[in-house]
């Protein structure tokens, strides 16, 4: 189902940045946020101190990231870009190796 939501410009920019940082779409983050609010006991999520009594936000994929993140010292965007580029080079190298075997 589609819905139109009016967000102020600064909030939408923050949302787009966070979506890109997580490798997700704005739609996915909005849906996850809505689910989080609706699934909170008593609808208390995001209401000041009452939010601290709810379970912490902990999506399923977070556990796997924590395993890798603890070994990383540099979390700058340059380091992230280099890590992505290195993984792509390795993936391309494996693909070329499979082509040669065929």
Describe this structure in words.
The protein is mostly helical and 102 residues long. It is 60% helix and 0% strand. The chain contains 4 helices and no strands. The chain has helices at residues 9-22, 26-39, 62-69, 77-101. The longest helix has 25 residues, at 77-101. The radius of gyration is 19 Å and the shape is elongated. The mean pLDDT is 78.
Q: Estimate what percentage of residues fall within beta strands.
A: under 5%
Largest sheet: none
Which of globular, elongated, flat, extended, rod-shaped describes the shape? Answer: elongated
Low confidence ranges: none
Count of helical stretches: 4
Give the overall pLDDT as a whole number. Answer: 78
Percent of residues in helices comes to 55-70%
- Beta-strand segment tally: 0
Provide the gyration radius in Å: 19 Å
Q: Give helix and strand order, one letter per element, not per position.
A: HHHH
Question: How far apart lie the N and C ends?
Answer: 46 Å
Which structural class do the helices and strands define? Answer: mainly alpha
Task: Reconstruct the topology from this structure.
Layout: H1 9-22, H2 26-39, H3 62-69, H4 77-101
Keywords summarizing the entry:
about 60% helix; 4 helices; mainly alpha; about 100 residues; elongated; about 0% strand
Describe what is shown at a glance.
The protein is 60% helix and 0% strand. It has 102 residues and is mostly helical. It starts with 8 loop residues before the first helix and ends with a helix.
């Amino acid at each position: 189902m589609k819905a139109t939501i009016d967000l102020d410009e600064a909030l939408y920019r923050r949302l787009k940045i966070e979506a890109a940082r997580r490798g997700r779409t704005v739609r996915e983050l909005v849906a996850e946020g809505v689910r989080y609010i609706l699934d909170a006991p008593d609808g208390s999520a995001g209401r000041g101190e009452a939010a601290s009594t709810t379970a912490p936000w902990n999506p399923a994929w977070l556990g796997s990231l924590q395993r890798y993140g603890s070994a990383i010292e540099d979390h700058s965007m340059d380091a992230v870009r280099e890590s992505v580029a290195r993984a792509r080079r390795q993936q391309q190298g494996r693909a070329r190796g499979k082509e040669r075997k065929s």
